[in-house]
């Protein structure tokens, strides 16, 4: 079980009409086969940028300032566009929040699955036969528990529900057999019961097919239900990263603590919910010290002396001077 | 906020150019137009050419068809009149017409388009079919027909142009209304007890104008162009009053040997059209960035 | 009607036409398809109480919320506010201040071109107030929701998401309403801000005695904020009762499935419910939940079960039909 993906010191920024803003700061983590890494962050934390960066789908106004993304031994950042194209369908599969972004609205669902199979055959250099592929497509649909798969295969995405479309995406992942799935808020737009179906499907294919997965979400509970490890992202920094169970049961970083406590776990008669301040991460932060300091309940002088470095603490890494004064 | 807009426009060369052209055109037209108006009121038409190098009506056959020179920047026409002075004298009419037509078009267009988008169904059908009806006619032909029917006066030209112009604003404002309608603050306004009319006035007009203002600015130049064409065809201001389109028409006889007669008025028209287009473009970028 | 009852919903039905009908369809007299969003719903809410309408998309909860405030008119049944019938928004201006709504998406709730003051003051337009009086009321409202009154001059589009939601709440309370419908008030806000908004809503209710109808799909929000919960599915109420009872010991199979599907921190993958979300155009003939219910038996396919009153709540399920009569021990 080697490391499938090693991200080291990845920094990404965006150019906009207002100037330049850094969105990811020296992010590092690794991922093995069969492992799910949950990346949890609010809007503006950089989580989507991380997904796009690994999938090499960053928009033209994004700039990778530094770092490396080593996938299967190859640094993706060192590849040219053409080499990345050849790599597609080989390793990395991306699932978006809105399946309509990934599914072709003009192609029947079954045909799109057949395409995915064709891509896989080309990569694996096996023969591609249309009838076999069509049958296999229906099997994949059945595998993701779509009722009447033969019928659904003949339909177009807009004729299916959001939940069905997301499951079609998972079927495509099964057909293409990538080694890494990057899912960016794939269940946010779904109903709770549909979400449960999709989550258990994800976990199933990760376990059964030995794929690796980066699951990005703002919902800690969703991340908790599917991840082996969890990384908490804030203002482009990884603030805490470690095994899911221990991070959730015994959170170390103050931001992680606030995320967990933000979920209402009682009724109003039992008292108010705990509150953390509202300010925008960019307010009152110059970039020279801990990004969370302006909102942190445990802030003190050491926090503004510099940007805290990630410290090894028990089974995880934490970026907080309360556990040791070390700076970048 | 206005300052920010100006700074934005000034920062880009294209929209800066447009801004300058538009300001010069309308600024000059305002001054000259007031002088001409005062002249008519006070019975002394000469006020109209106080700021001009020459009297635009004075004929002088010995100076006919002189080429451009430092004394006659755009040369003289077949009757010896200074073309530059005539061009400057004619500017206020085009400026006034462009503003009246665009404002009129905006008014009628929103009157038709906003309720169509807001109420939907019956009102939408009726209003939009009416709009389609007017859009079906090529603009110029419709203007010609209206004016030919009503008479060859500037007032009728204005009416004809407004009739031609409002349908596109109707479509645009309807599209804006459709964007605003599903927003929850419209529901909130209903819950506050506002009537449909009050809601349209408070929440829809502003949004509509925000989008339409850039089109309207570009249209200022377009109206000048179409009105010049009408004049060119003889439906605008009647001679001896100078008008850019008419001057182009008159100059055709003398083209290409005495090219300046047609070219300069035409050039001025072009500059105004391009200037308003550049400014309108800049406005659109400005407003798009604001959203 | 009891003295303390504030809001009463009786047999409300709301249908929407499906698809567009062109001239050709009309000539051919093609039958119109209807979607029943709310299907014979009845309940009441006491003064100062919070009732949560808990359900997923398609359950009818949002439509019911709009009917309660008068944004839509029911096709059958009626809605009573303190004994008088609720009229739709265009029919009655006087009633407007008493029924208010806080919407889900703060960015869509406020007109970005208007100042905060203009937004918050809008419900006061039915009253005849001078500008100064309006200004005073707006400041008071902003203070109540924890915002600095100087914010009133800012353009609403410039505010952050959390601030916008507070402004929306300030607008909802300025007319001293009796009932406020909260449509997913924290769903579109960052998770760390949700607690603030929820606390604020509780404080306001304790201070002013508002009656809340909370629309949500999130059981933990319902658990915190509401006194009673009505679980909705396909336009019907399947279970209704005190929050603690319904969310801790759910009786209806759908409630159980819904709660089991909701991911929790520290929990593993949630147990999925079988089957597809239902079609609203062709709902099942019998019990609406029957196609996905693990306990379904024959009678479930014939007719949708009525709500039966049990100790500590009502359930619409044949599993409990007998219990209602005999009230055996062992259940509640």
Automatic annotation (TrEMBL), chain A:
Entry-linked InterPro entries: AAA+_ATPase, ABC_Ni/Peptide_Import, ABC_transporter-like_ATP-bd, Oligopep_ABC_C, P-loop_NTPase
Keywords: ATP-binding, Cell inner membrane, Cell membrane, Membrane, Nucleotide-binding, Translocase, Transport
Record domain ABC transporter: where: 7-260
GO terms, molecular function: ATP binding; ATP hydrolysis activity
SMART domains, alphabetized: AAA
Membrane topology per record: Peripheral membrane protein
Subcellular location: Cell membrane
Cell membrane among keywords: yes
GO biological process: peptide transport
One cellular-component annotation, GO: plasma membrane
One of the Pfam families matching this protein, by short name: ABC_tran
Name of the protein in question: Peptide ABC transporter ATP-binding protein
Source organism per UniProt: Candidatus Marsarchaeota G2 archaeon OSP_D
Phylogenetic classification of the source organism: Archaea, Candidatus Marsarchaeota, Candidatus Marsarchaeota group 2
